[in-house]
Amino acid sequence: MKAVVCEKVGEPWKVVDNLPTPEPSPDQILVKSIYTAINPADWMMASMGVLVQDWPLVAGLDAAGVVVKVGENAASSFKVGDHVCGCTRLGAPGYSAGQEYFLMDANVTIPKPSNVTLVEAATIGVGALTSALGLFGGLDVKLPELQDVKDDKEETLAEPGEWAVVLGGASSVGKFGSQILKACGYKVIASCSAKSVALVKQSVDAVFDYNKPVEEQVKEVLSVTKGNIHRVYDAAATGIEFASALFKELPNGPKLFATTNSWSGITDFEGATTNLIQLAAIGRPDAEQLNNQLASYIPVLVAMFEKKKLLPSPYDLIGEGGFECAIEALNYQKTGAGGANKVVVKIQDE
């Protein structure tokens, strides 16, 4: 089986044709990889070895493909021919989308929303699932009722006029976080650079410049929100200084902070409750609580996409397709050439 691999820490990506085709367990599906999106974590694992359970490491966390084999227990959820997407198990042999066929754990696999193309679906998994964990699991945002979303019922899950802050609003994770908050009835103010203002404004109520001094950022946020704010979603993994300064100015009511910075051991501060988003354990047998959380969020997320409350991320599609193009896409993403867009590559034809 062909794949794009890093043989050991620090080595370059290369194409091989010697990997065994994995076999799904009763609770898994085998997926033919069609598209994958490149993530910073691909490079982090390859260059530092973190989260890698065994070598060689295969690229591709954000997956989109077609089901070719279904485990006995997974047959209640999926069938051969279904289009699926999501986030694969990180660093585990047999699970990455940068190979011809890969495993997915059925309970945390996203059925492709009906109004989303397969290439668009490759932009969904990591960003949408990370945001769902950070908001529903970390910031005490109430999960909408599935039927209410399907019925297009206007959600009033936030208090009237209540705001939430999203740090890193131009990132994929930040954009999904902003959209979910809006769908749940919150007003959203997001940080971004000056060049991303027009993009970010499409999905939020207000923006502020993260390149300004923190004191100015906090002053602007307080002015816009009138202090009616209790939740900070740190999609950029760099928001502790801002959140600390903001919470100092908010003496009353709950203070909630969720961050994608799961590695530095941030604890509660300034009277706020901190939640570290731990998507990296997705699918693993020892992460039952996480997997159950994600399984409860996925039907709601799919319904949000189908009702256009959530939109796939903008993307750059690299090359004409194939495994060599995947290496081109990895290098393109590393240089930052895509800007705020996801970097997507077609692995093979359907």
TrEMBL record:
- UniProt-listed InterPro entries: ADH-like_N, ER, GroES-like_sf, NAD(P)-bd_dom_sf, Trans-enoyl_RdTase-like
List the PANTHER family hit by this protein, alphabetically: HYPOTHETICAL OXIDOREDUCTASE (EUROFUNG), ZINC-TYPE ALCOHOL DEHYDROGENASE-LIKE PROTEIN C2E1P3.01
Q: Which GO terms describe its molecular function?
A: oxidoreductase activity, acting on NAD(P)H
Q: Which UniProt keywords apply?
A: Oxidoreductase
Family statement drawn from the similarity comment of this UniProt entry: Belongs to the zinc-containing alcohol dehydrogenase family.
In Swiss-Prot or TrEMBL terms, this protein is called Enoyl reductase (ER) domain-containing protein
Q: Please list the residue ranges annotated as the Enoyl reductase (ER) domain.
A: 10-345
Has the keyword Oxidoreductase been applied to this entry? yes
| Domain of life of the native organism | Eukaryota
